[in-house]
Please model this.
Amino acid sequence: MYTYERLLSDIGELEGVERLVLGITWGGRIIPCVHVGSKRGRQLIVCAAIHAREHITAQLAMRLLGECRKRAGELFGWGIYFIPMANPDGVELCIRGTESVRSAWDRENVLKINGGCPDFSLWKANLVGIDLNVNFDARFGTGVSNVFSPAPENYVGEAPFSEPESRALVDFTKKVRPSAVISYHCKGEMIFWKFHQQANLLRDRILAEALAEVTGYELVDEMGSAGGYKDWCIQHLGIPAFTIEVGSDAFPHPFPYSELDRIFEQNRQVPFALIKNML
Ligand SMILES: [Zn+2]
Model:
């Protein structure tokens, strides 16, 4: 499985890239980011593993990063910021359980939130039971699956951006002002592209169709969710932003890494297709 340690080691081995730190998590881990391509041109942000149990997407993001470095000529002067693991505390909790939690208080707290169960392999939230992908200021708290107390998934938090991880992501995104955003999730082989946008509906639909074509994934309109990273990007920046759910529903969570090669093949054209269609 793709641990935080492996991620940091893989990032450490990259040459000729810029490494950045987005912020520090509840558990004291850095949220790493790697930039490839030009800093002067338009920028794309590719974010993954904001949901803990979807850690396969962190390794996918690292493979895509490698692909973009190899095919830099096909970026047409764009730059890409890869944020392979937006929720490192959650991923570590998923993979290594409470052993990954340094503070005794946090350890006791996560066990309580998990109903006393030591198996965290299905955990989606951050270290304090807040689901980061419903913690953004975009129709906050109105999602159909939202819950309102700490939980392994779907708890929105006390207020938008209550969490260091979602704040780090939004502050960074505001600073970069990307032209487009991709947020990787797992699973279902679907692409979510819509969030109540009106003026840019046709533009975003055309881009989503291009991504559906290269991945073979299904386009899905709104499903009553709110407060997500892509939702915030659409609502507040007016840019095209996509949640891509990789991996077939034929497999249960925790999602098998034996599917990674297939998932990579399905997604390897994604950054290039998006850029080409935005030139
Ligand atoms: Zn997810």
About this structure: Residues 56-70 form the longest helix (15 residues). The CA atoms of residues 22 and 172 lie 7 Å apart. The pocket of zinc ion is lined by residues 51, 54, 185 (CB under 6 Å).
